[in-house]
Amino acid sequence: MNTAIPELTVRPLAGLPMFAAGQSIAQAICSALSASGDGLRSGDICVIAQKIVSKSEGRTVNLAALALGSAARDLAARTGREAAMAQAILDESAEIMRPHPAAIIARHKTGHVLANAGIDASNVEGGDAGTVLLWPVDPDASARAIRCELQEATGVQVAVVIADSMGRAWRIGTVGTAIGCAGLTVLEDRRGRAVDLYGRALQATVIAVADSVAAMAALAMGEGDEGTPVALVRGAARWTCEEDGPGAASGLRPIEQDMFR
Questions:
Q1: What is the model's pLDDT at position 194?
Q2: Where do the structural domains in the chain lie, given as residue ranges?
Q3: pLDDT at position 205
Q4: DSSP secondary-structure letter at 202?
Q5: How far apart are the first and last CA of the chain?
Q6: Alpha helix (H) ranges present in 1-107?
Q7: Quick check: pTM over 0.90?
C-alpha cells in the first residue's frame, strides 16, 4: 500500500536585508522568522538563492580589473561578448562546451553545466558599471556551513538547498536548480524498490529531489525585484536526514556518461 505524502508548502521569507560580504545568512533567516512569529521546525528545508550566498562570501568581481588573455579575446570574437566577460567565464570554467552568441555554455569548476558559468549582473549593486557576481567557490560547503549555523542557533534539524536558475538543453526557460545541498536526499533511487499501479517494478526512476525542491521554491521566491531570496519548504521531512549528505554535486551526471556530445 502506498504511503501518503504529507502536504508540501512553500513560502518566501520576507524581511531579509540586502546582503553584503561577511553577513550571516543563517542569522538573517532566524531574525526574519522571529519577526514573523514563526521559527524553524525539524524537517524544514531552507532554500536560499545563490546570489545572497555569493554576496555574503564576497564573490563580486569588477570586469574592468581583469587581465585579458588571448583565449578570452578569441571567445569574445566568436560570441560577440565583451572580452572581460569572456575572461571571467574562462576563469570560472573547467571547460567551454558550446560558445554561442546567445550564451556561452560552460562546465563550471564545480562540475555544473550552465550558461556563462553562472556569472550574472542582475540584482548586483554596480551591475551597470561592470560589477558581476560569481558562484560560491564550493556551493555544497556553503550549504553545510549555513545548515550548521542554523542548527546551532535553533537546536532543530533542518536542510539547506542553495538554488540558482538554470536552463536545460532541450527546453525553453529556466528552472530553479540545486547547486548546493546539505541534510537533504539529492537523488531518490526508486529502481527495484517501488512498483507501479500494476505491480511492475520500477526500472529507471531516479527522482531529483533536491532539484524538485529548488524548482518549487524558486517559483515562490521570484526572479526579479521581489526581494525574497529565501523560501521555507515544509512537509518534505521524509527526504531530510541527520547527516549533511554528499551534496548537490552527487546529482551531476558523470562526464563519461554524457549522452549529448
A1: 85
A2: 9-56+138-245, 60-133
A3: 84
A4: P
A5: 42
A6: 25-35, 50-56, 70-79, 83-92
A7: yes
Residue 164 CA from chain centroid, whole number: 4
CB 231 within 8 A of CB 217: yes
**Domain 60-133: CATH superfamily, name plus number:** CofE-like domain (3.90.1660.10)
pLDDT score for 192 = 81
Contact 87, 70 (CB under 8 A): no
d(CA 123, CA 121) in angstroms, rounded, equals 6
At position 42, the amino acid (one-letter code) is S
Q: Are 94 and 135 in contact (CB under 8 A)?
A: no
Please state at what angle helix 70-79 crosses helix 83-92, rounded to 10 degrees.
110
pLDDT at residue number 2: 53
Q: Which residues in the chain show pLDDT less than 50?
A: 1
In this structure, which topology does domain 9-56+138-245 adopt according to CATH? 60s Ribosomal Protein L30; Chain: A; (3.30.1330)
Q: What is the rounded distance in angstroms from the CA atom of residue 135 to the CA atom of residue 126?
A: 17
